[in-house]
Amino acid sequence: MAPRMIRGAQAVAEAAALCRPQVISAYPITPQTVIVEELAQMIANGKLEAEFVNVESEHSAASVVLGASATGVRVYTASSSQGLLLMSEVLYNIAGMRLPVVLTCANRSVSAPLNIWNDQQDSISLRDSGCLQFYAENNQEAVDLLLLAYRVAEDHGVMLPALVCVDGFLLPHAYEAVDVPEPKEVDAFLPPYQPLYRLDPDEPLTFGAYAEPDKYMEARYMMQRAQEKAISVIQEAGHSFEKVFGRPISALMERYRMDDASTALVAMGSVIGTIKDVVDELRSQGQRVGALKIVTYRPFPKELIYHALKEMENIIVLDKAVSLGSGGPLATEIRAAFQGSPQPPRVSGVIAGLGGRDITMDTIKRIISQAQKEVLEAEFVDLREDMELEGVD
Amino acid sequence: MMREIRIHARAGQGAITTAMLLAVAAFEEGKHALAFPHFGAERMGAPMNAFVRLSDVPIRLRSQIRHPDYVLVQDPTLLRVNDVTAGLKPGAIVIVNEEKSPEELGLKARVVTVPASCIARDVIGRADRGNTALLGAFAAATGEISLEALKKAVSARFQGESRDRNLEALEQAYDLIASKPGGSS
């Protein structure tokens, strides 16, 4: 289909509908609501055949899709911020029950202070939940990664839930050209869900059974192996995507002007667009700068990342989240990837854009010039200078 | 060449629709466009911005617009609240929904005024639906977008009588600004 100038939320909802979910359940929360509103409208208008289950909280929304998925049908939900946190108790169960639930996270900061704007603290806090995590740079990727997420999540070697993360407001509320594929193309890429096991009254079985110390660890081990296996499944799904839809997809990561680069910026989500513009500007001035976009955060493709970055002098990792008491979660993992290597690059970590703080090209340029002089450790950038920060120093 | 447009409005006044119509019209002309809102308090009546980028090449930049080529002010009461001229690029044009002359506003910028609310009141029957008239003024004052493309965008967004009246408001404002010699101060 030809690209259309549409709102991100509409593009994501259309993509979700194309995946033919049979049950959708969600609870409204800004900035996610616009996505499920579109889906509710499609169902009400008879354009999508699915059951939309209205619930009283995100915990219930996640529980509904858990139950529905366990009966062997494809499901969809979406959330943000506190809503995702309220879902998290259930999401750990969904992952442990090996149910391929797919949800869109419209990334938003977490309370307190109360703030509706974008950062990635909500999905990052589900880092260890067993959910696959993909981060979209733009609305085309928000669509493409959703299709890919179902395919990977439902692969019998994976069978894990997946989060497709889109920066709140910056993507769902933005109008830009998006190519939402034809139903027959999506059907060719994503066949109907074939559950390995399902709840059936005629052949009863238990999901999420009691596992004593003699079995629990094996269950967790299998989840870890499934995450590792997912790397190759994602790669394969990416190749298949390109064949079916006739356009490229960066499924695990994307190298941008990295050949001969000596400084690399590493980040996830929509800020990569701004970073690419900075890279082009600095390249035109002769600076050897490139960017590495991490698309798949879980599983973490550390081998590929290591090889993409090992020749760098300076690596600058931008996190839109912070592991309080440690630092940038992505920076920590990038540093770990170079542990024990003979001549490791200098890895700087910066925290930026929390709670919707705008990240400008000037911000990125300042970070680069600072990190070329000294290694930055969990440096909060663009802090206000006119506010007294109590308890600091 | 990228063109950056900053819209000042109050939440509920249709600034997102203004931005969207401009993006759709530009897309209609084969350009790349990105339109997105930035909310303040996310409450009806609170000051907010919407941003539009237009370009001949794909747009990747996601930051807010601090140095606009053009500013659209949907609500003139915001002139008392916000500095709508903040960060203007050299030669930038500020288009204000206002009956007064540009000189009377006393802004340090190239200003075009258009009585968009009056046009909307007379043509659409609602003074708070001035965004299509404002867009007509934008097209006439800047030449960045054709009236034809805007008409297509408006026709796709509205139906029936609402479409006809919005098209009328768009054209009235366009003609009004296009007929003024210089049109600005």
Short summary of the structure?
The complex is a heterodimer of chains A (393) and B (185). Chain A contains twelve helices and 15 strands.
Walkthrough of the structure:
The complex is a heterodimer of chains A (393) and B (185). Chain A is an alpha/beta fold. Chain A has two domains: 4-245, Thiamin diphosphate (ThDP)-binding fold, Pyr/PP domains (Rossmann fold), CATH 3.40.50; 253-380, 3-Layer(aba) Sandwich (Rossmann fold). Chain A has helices at residues 8-18, 33-44, 58-70, 81-96, 121-124, 139-153, 183-189, 216-245, 271-284, 302-309, 329-337, 361-373; strands at 4-7, 23-26, 51-54, 75-79, 102-107, 132-135, 162-167, 175-178, 253-256, 263-267, 289-294, 296-298, 314-319, 346-351, 379-380. In chain A, strands 3-2-4-5-7-6-12 form a seven-stranded mixed beta sheet, with helices on both faces. A six-stranded mixed beta sheet of chain A has the order 9-11-10-13-14-15, with helices on both faces. In chain A, strands 1-8 form a two-stranded antiparallel sheet. In chain A, α4 links the parallel β4 (75-79) and β5. In chain A, α1 (8-18) crosses α2. The radius of gyration of chain A is 21 Å and the shape is globular. The model of chain A has no long low-confidence stretch (mean pLDDT 97). Chain B has 185 residues and is α/β, with parallel strands linked by helices. Chain B has one domain: 3-Layer(aba) Sandwich (Pyruvate-ferredoxin Oxidoreductase, domain 3), CATH 3.40.920. Chain B has a six-stranded mixed beta sheet with strand order 2-3-1-4-5-6, with helices on one face. In chain B, α1 (15-28) packs across α5 (147-157) and α3 (116-123) packs across α4. Chain B is globular, with a radius of gyration of 15 Å. In chain B, 49% of the residues are buried. The model of chain B has no long low-confidence stretch (mean pLDDT 95).
